[in-house]
Design goal:
By secondary structure, the chain is of the alpha/beta class. The protein has 15 helices and 16 strands. The N and C termini lie far apart (124 Å). It comes from Corynebacterium pseudogenitalium.
Length: 463
Amino acid sequence: MGRHSDGKSNYRLSGGAILVILVAFAVILSAILMMKLKPEQSDDASEAQCVSGELSLPVASTERSVGEAIVAAYNESHRVVRDYCVQAELVDKVEDAAILLAPETANPDAVLRNAKRSAAVPDPQIVYAAPLGVEGQTSTDPATLKLESVRFVLPERSDASVAVASLLAKDEAGAVDVLQQQAVEDIESIQDEQSLYAAAIEQASGDRVFTSLDAVLNYVGIPLNSTDNVDENKSRAGQDLMKYAASTLKTDSKSQVVDVPDQVWSQVAEIPVDETEKEQKEVGSENQQQALDTLFLYDTSDAMQPFKPAVDTAIRDAAYRVTESGHQVALWNYSSPLNPGVTKGWRSNIAMTSDAEDVAYTASLLGTGGAPQTREALFAAADAMRELDRDIRIVLITTGTADDDGSPQAAAALQDRLGERIKLDVVRVGDSPADTAVTDVASVVKEAPSAEQVSAALTAVVD
């Protein structure tokens, strides 16, 4: 019997097949939309990271090529600091910078003093190993290069000049001599001399040829404290640049690291070594003895409460005077343990730093309470400062001593803990009896019976 037509096409898709096609179409459409939207989402994410906008980071460098290399590498990393997108740029003046790039063996104190700036960290990190070499009309063989054929472009190429002179000369005196005898004002003065070469860092100028001497001059990044022109955000960004550059530093173990002696640096420094020493001697022996890194050991016992605002202000002013003289400051406070489980009455708040504001701010946040366990804190501070292995002054600001055990050997024990390199000065606040074991050992003791006398007493100790 024949089949009857129902009038519908035999090629009609089943419901299941239609569903599969629709799902596949939806997947393809979603993929296309995601590809189109992805860049916009990335842009949004980038903008979200930089919610505070962009921040210009001013960088000063004693050698421009080094500064350019570090700035370029930092900017390629697209760093974000405190929600700012940071863009580093080279500036000519240290006064305008948030970080200074300088050779590790150089003493930048004179530059910082002249610019009225101070370092924000006690230990700058190495951030760049600058290749040393010479440039000339042709390349040369480093093994046969004679020092007599090298010229030193001063003051434009100070870093390269002292480093190459120190590398090639037999001794320090020889390096000083060639810097004096073979200095030229510019590269053009030897442009036509095929037998002469000029000290250079990293690359040659113009169409001249650079020859590596298989040696490097290490540079450190010195983050600087904030000023009216350089705000705190830029100062923090300067510290970030130092840390980033140090973490990505690439060194060649085959290259010799050149150590430039102070006397050689003096040939190109803004303030020569001998002139600096002469100037320091004129200051006077008394001021020289007091120009030291300083630890403020702050009694925050209950007895200090009525004096604390005055002491906070005095510490702030004193900390700035110390750092402005080129030295560092630290802060400890002490009383007696106030919380269960705490066994020591002293606390190390701020380690040695050039950031006077950090010390001042931290001091202002401290509360008062408990009894003044002065002996315990002083002995601990003396031990800690001796470990730094340098001349340091401890300024004890105290209301008295609650842990005096009456030992007749206390003064001798304290003197032994201080050693020869730790100086103790004391500011006695209030009218409590003096701890003679402490005052007998102290170099200077100043009295401040009232809050109004605190500032003058601490100033007399620091100045």
